[in-house]
TrEMBL record:
GO terms for biological process: glycogen catabolic process. It is an enzyme of class 2 (transferase). Keywords: Carbohydrate metabolism, Glycosyltransferase, Pyridoxal phosphate, Transferase. The keyword ATP-binding does not apply. GO terms for cellular component: cytoplasm. InterPro entries: Glycg_phsphrylas, Glyco_trans_35, Pyridoxal_P_attach_site. Its cofactor is pyridoxal 5'-phosphate. GO terms for molecular function: glycogen phosphorylase activity; pyridoxal phosphate binding. This is Alpha-1,4 glucan phosphorylase. The modification N6-(pyridoxal phosphate)lysine is found at K693.
Amino acid sequence: VTGKEKWPKGEEEVWKAGMRGVDKDVSDITKSFVNHAQTSLARQAYNLDDFGAYEAAALAARDDLLVNWNETQLNYTRKNPKRAYYLSLEFLMGRTLDNALLNLGLKGEFEEGVKKLGFNMEDLLEKERDAALGNGGLGRLAACYLDSSASQEIPVWGYGLRYQYGIFQQLISPEGNQLEAPDPWLEHQNPWELPRLDVTYEVRFYGHAERSSDGSGRANWSGGQEVMAVAYDVMIPGYNTKTTNNLRLWQSKPKRGFDLNSFNAGNYEAAVESSNSAAAITSVLYPNDHTSTDLANEATVGKELRLKQQYFWTAASLADILRRFKNTGKPITDFPDYAAIQLNDTHPTLAIPELMRILIDEEELSWNQAWQIVTNTFFYTNHTVLPEALEKWAVPLVEHVLPRHLQIIYDINMYFLQAVEKKFPGDRDRLARMSLIEEGYPKQVRMAHLACIGSRKVNGVAELHSELVRTTILKDFVEFEGVSKFGNVTNGVTPRRWLDQCNHELSDLITKTLKIEKKVWLKDLAKLEGLLAFTEDKNFREQWAAIKQRNKERLARHVQTTLGLTVRTDAMFDVQIKRLHEYKRQTLNILGVIHRYLTLKSMTPAERSKCNRKVVFFAGKAAPAYYIAKLTIRLIVNVARVINADADTKDFLQLYFLPDYSVSLAEVLIPASDISQHISTAGTEASGTSNMKFCLNGGLLLGTVDGANIEIAEEVGENNVFFFGHLTPAVEDLRYQHAYHPVPIEQKCPALAKVLNEVSAGMFGDGGVYEPLLNTIRQGDYYLLTDDFDSYIAALAMVDDAYLDRDEWIKKSIRTTAKMGKFSSDRAILEYAESYWNLEQTPVS
Ligand code: B1N
């Protein structure tokens, strides 16, 4: 398809007369809305409730998206540019309607339209369920990158899984325990996806792989289980452009409905067994982040299902990518000139042996030709250096599920180790360290090593993290392959969702102040720097502060309606929201809160009256099997119960754990924060992305010298952030001290000892319950709470002092937002496109 060819079929005019464009006028929109209510939903004015009205609005918006999506895909087919494919097991999209309307430029028109029909747009937006197909930062990053790719007109497709159940819904029991409930997000029809029941691939598991005896290195893989992958496409609109990219999610289904032999023999359970096992593959998102499946404390079947998810998804995606490439008629050796495949962490690493398998066994290329193509196609992003999070798969499991792939992995390893041996003769330790196979019972495949050697380039997600990748987990690989393969792309966030949508008042004030059109600065975020000129403008500062105040009131209303709790809004809002994990140190925060409470209790009323009022918010989910993380939640909830009820202190300190953290809850919390906490042990948080979102919304940052906090401080200046704690190079020594020369807490950190004793003594109920949590600090203290507690408390005091000078605080807030240009995901995605994938912007023409 070139665009110059003659009209493909029928009469061009008749076709064109039937085609719709994007609705522009309020009257087009109301017409489309009413049509959908009437014919898609079978409802009318008499029986359309808010949820139905949301659905009608969504269907009207979807039609507009589809017009642009069709044009974009045709444009790509015609121009055939190189494309990038973003393979991610997680896409944490959140809600879609508001973003779709913003990007289409139709927010105002839809608002007016639904009003004419008797609805309020804000209420309708609230009816949409989050698409929560992710755990946390890694999945949300993928969503931001899709938004930026489309907005910057870069040809990127996402590939993931269409889980029936996303991340579990979190409930908190009366005792303060996390309970998990399923998230049936597909209960209602999902207007944002397009089922492509005709786009299917067969994926094989188990069976036998027989190497051919002709010396070609090829093999024949047969037998086992065959499962179908069915495509569901999600439209990804760019902001203020026609470009609407695609996210393709695979759903598993049985190859045959049921086994007719068993059925005819009257054995109905056996007849549907295989179809149940096929459907199970995409049934649920794994809720363990930062936990290798090997440590996830699951039965073998559980691990096997995760491995099957990974292969199912990579095999279907690669088959689809190759089919698209083959349609162009180019020779297979040109593949890397037309496709760049980005591996989002090691989860899709099986794509490397899978592409080798296709090229060798099916395309009949030689090993060297195939390896040449593979290593020019893949790119690998590492998202963590925590040892327990590095993926490893037991060799016997891989052999059972993917016998041909294990052969290929062993062959890759053999050629690789031969090359290492040649460069470093006789260095057996090095060979053992670098091998794709870790010795042990059982042996294990090291997925990060495979991803590294199979990729053109490797990157970390913030400067410090990328340096740690180069100097720790992949040090040997840097020495072997050269440092230029190992880069950095600091993460970013989309300013569309994380500023304009979640904080439209601030966005409007910025537009008015800069006198730059919103559609310009939202795509060129460095323009925010213009705000610096207004820090001395008193009127501007007052408006800035008033918006923050209204955002705090909006959050308070949200807590009131959802939890029935009354939050005071004349206080500093201090927020820590992220997955619960020991390395993120929510424990440090809650122990700090208790310390503050004890201090307030010890004061006279007159002394107290001089203190800052503060409300502390926590939110976040714990992996269901992560006992210590769940205990931390329990402690927070029970501390809140005591503190909020204490008449002496409740005017000065309130504490809330908001259940069921989600993208949508983040959109309410982030704009309301005065200060947010990013307090991981130095060297453990690869980047963090919520830190960027808070700062973009004028919240100040309290954090350790870790991840992207460092680059945020570089941008906004160290006097506008609150840093504390030991630095990364000290961590190893401190851990050694804990292990071999432990000092009793009473001696090392009396303030912390006092807090721990009060918890043990039952100040927050059932003291004994918390002992396992407290013991992680008393013994070993792997995350260095006893080392950082005093400087943490000192930093909190500096935050209090700074907040007392409200005018200066607001200046810091403005300066922070002004310097956040670097952290737009547009910047990040353009770096990937230019320095990694070698892609060009391809606007719809
Ligand atoms: O990826 C984010 C970073 O901003 C965070 O610092 C980092 O912690 C996060 C296994 C992960 N790293 N690793 C994961 C997720 C799911 C899973 O099954 C690991 N998530 C991160 C974006 O770069």
